[in-house]
Amino acid sequence: MRQSDFRRLSLILLFAPFALWILLLIVLPHIGMGVLALREKVAPRVYEFGFGNFLEFMHEPIYWNTLIRTGSMSLLVTALALLIGFPIAYYIAKIAGPRSRGALFLVCLIPLWVSDLIRAFGWILLLRETGVISSALQAAGLIDAPVELLYNDATVVIGLVYTVILFMIVPLVSTLDGMDNAMIEAGYNLGGNGFTVLRRIIIPYAMPGIVAGCIIVFMLTAGSYLTPILLGGKYSSWFTETIYQQFITRYNWEGGAAFGFLLLAFTSAVVWIGLKLSRQTLAGTVAKS
Amino acid sequence: MLQRKQTWGFLLGYQAYVLAFFVFLAAPLVAAAAFAFNDSLFPALPWRGFTLDWFFNDSEPKLGMFHDRRLLRGLYYSFVIATGVALLSVFVGTCNAFLFVRREFPAKNFLYIVMVVPLVIPGVILGISILVLASSIANGLEEGYGIDLGFLRPGIFLVVLGQFSFIATITSLVITARLRKFDATMEEAALNLGASRLRVLATITLPYLRPAMIAAGIVAFLVSFENFNTTLFLVGSETPLTITMFDRMAKAGSTPVLNAISFFLIVGSGLLALVSVVVQRDRSGG
Predict the structure, then answer these.
(1) What is the mean pLDDT of residues B130-152?
(2) Inter-chain touch B99–A33, beta carbons under 8 Å
(3) Which chain B residues contact residue A243 at CB under 8 A?
(4) How far apart are CA A222 and CA A67, in angstroms?
(5) N or C: which end of chain B has fewer CB within 10 A?
(6) CATH number of the domain residue B165 falls in
(7) Are the beta carbons of B24 and A17 separated by less than 8 Å?
(8) Distance between CA atoms of A101 and A95, rounded to whole angstroms?
(9) CB of A81 within 8 Å of any CB in chain B?
(10) Is the ipTM of this structure higher than 0.90?
């Protein structure tokens, strides 16, 4: 009897930190945000429950345009990160020799721990009107006047791909690493060419890694703030910036909370659709990597 | 090694692509770091000679980072926050590892997914939701009972909680993965030899987990140090380094002192990341 009491007590003690963390820092804050989002300001210091904050979103095209723009650019960034990152991950996991593999992977990881801020700062120094690339092009005589490469959508997309691509490569490498080379050999021996082997063997095998990478990259991109602001300038119209403006600049917490909820619902919906389309689960992808 | 199936031309092109990718990866870091040593008031070309003024000079206009009060204070706050987050999240991560590897309880698989979810919630949302909850509790207490709880207002405490809310997932996953590989017969052997449960935990299981705990702590420290999105909403008057740097960057004429601190952070986090890899590698065979 004492033994089972002890086990129950220790289970409760082990469970407590987890429960406190999830309840106090994840569940309750989101409920609080939901309640705040449903609070409508009808007069100064007078509130009533309603969907006014969400209706404001629907009535103001600039808001939902920003959300759709954020979503579609994030999808583009995710696709580009996968296209650029997959060959790199395959090279590290399958083609590089055992000794250079570790080094390459490490080189991939080191920029991962350098702040987004510093990376964006580096891009600014390279791309701005007085920056390195503009100066170098002038010195080489290719252009006559300084050229501004910042503050356009292409730069924002490149900057975002740069910021998040390592989160694509890392799960891909760990999935591809577990793949038996004999499977690829077998594909060739059965007469498949490189493309068939890639499409029929490698990609299906790597699917959990691909989905995990895509989810993390998409969420990070849609929720990013620094890169779009610093590389896209004031008018980059990223949705997180809209949330920030509501909260900090306009001090409209109700509106900001509603927008936050919309971002969360929108990104979750995209991830859910992605999981359904690829027939994967969250537990089998992100939780594993 | 699968290159024999491909032609040499293909492999050469492939390697060129990989090389180009690593150049792309390094370019902005090199740019951010290199201008720290340029003897000019602007972080831009042309190169005007090598200098260490942006680190050590003690007067305007070339105030070096080790004499720049606000940057040093930011560095200090970042350090305090990151240490707090690392300790807290390694502790909770270790508890979670034991909980999910060793124990059976209802809805275990569902709760495991719940544990992973904070990692995929956008950082901005975590920041505002915690800000909203803390502020409404603080306001309610102040209006209802006249109690003013300062720590629920934006400041270091909320920043630590906000960062911890998703970093705990990272440490939990790292430590859980290590505990799953643990050979339970080692514990049984010790128990059979008459050791108490607590002693087995202290002398066998925790030492086995130590590399993963150290690595998870370093990762937590670095992620906390570089975090911006969550911190932005919870920050009070004690601004950590990333916020201070962002404020300066947003102003146009920033001096290369920002490059100096970038160089310092790149080298520092690179070394720490290396330590975390080495710590995990050394003992993983054992």
Answers:
(1) 84
(2) no
(3) 124, 128
(4) 9
(5) C
(6) 1.10.3720.10
(7) no
(8) 9
(9) no
(10) no
pLDDT at B276 over 50: yes
User: Mean pLDDT over residues A128-134, rounded?
Assistant: 79
More confident residue, A127 or B254: A127
Report CB contact under 8 Å: A18, B95.
yes
Q: Which domain holds residue B156?
A: 57-284
By the CB < 8 Å criterion, does B113 face chain A?
yes
Number of structural domains chain B divides into: 1
Task: Mark out the alpha helices in chain B (DSSP H runs).
Answer: 8-34, 53-56, 69-102, 108-116, 123-145, 156-180, 184-192, 197-200, 206-226, 229-234, 241-250, 257-284
- Per the CB < 8 A criterion, the answer to whether B118 and B126 are in contact is yes
Region B58-87: mean pLDDT is 84
Contacts of A158 in chain B (CB under 8 A): none
- Give the model confidence (pLDDT) of B169-192 as tens digits: 989 998 998 888 888 888 888 888
Partners of residue B104 in chain A, C-beta under 8 Å: none
Q: What are phi and psi of A8, to 5 degrees?
A: -65, -45
Separation of alpha carbons A181 and A203, rounded Å: 14
Segment B206-228 mean pLDDT: 89
Count interface pairs A-B at CB distance under 8 A.
Answer: 234
The three-class DSSP label of residue B285 is coil
Confidence of residue B286 (pLDDT cuts 50, 70, 90): very low
Report the distance separating Cα A160 and Cα A166, nearest Å: 11
| Contact call for B262 and A121, based on CB within 8 A | yes
Q: Coil, helix or strand for A47?
A: strand
Q: Span A229-248, mean pLDDT?
A: 83
CB contact, 8 Å: A76 with chain B? no
- The answer to whether position B31 is within a domain reads no
Contacts of B45 in chain A (CB under 8 A): 130-132, 135-136
Please tell me the distance in Å from A220's CA to the nearest CA on chain B: 6
- CB–CB contact B113 A215 (8 Å): no
Q: State which fold the A52-278 domain adopts.
A: MetI-like fold (1.10.3720)
Average pLDDT in chain A = 82
Q: Is the pLDDT of residue B144 over 90?
A: no
Q: How far apart are CA A14 and CA A267, in angstroms?
A: 32
Nearest CA in chain A to B267: A114
Chain A residue whose CA is closest to B32: A122
B271 vs A: CB within 8 A: no
What CA–CA distance (Å, rounded) separates A229 from A163? 13
Q: How many CB atoms lie within 10 A of CB A265?
A: 10
Contacts of B113 (CB under 8 A, 6+ apart): A282, A283, A287
B3 band by pLDDT with thresholds 50, 70 and 90: very low
Q: What is the 3-state secondary structure (H, E, C) of B232-247?
A: HHHCCCCCCHHHHHHH
* B contact test, residue of A39, A108, A110, A218 with most B CBs within 10 A: A110
**Any idea which residue has 């990259």 for tokens?**
A217
Mark yes or no for CB contact A33/B128 under 8 Å.
Answer: yes
Does residue B123 surpass a pLDDT of 80?
A: yes
B189-210 residue pLDDT tens: 888 888 888 888 888 888 888 8
- Selecting from A132, A248, A263 the residue whose C-beta is nearest the C-beta of B125 gives A263
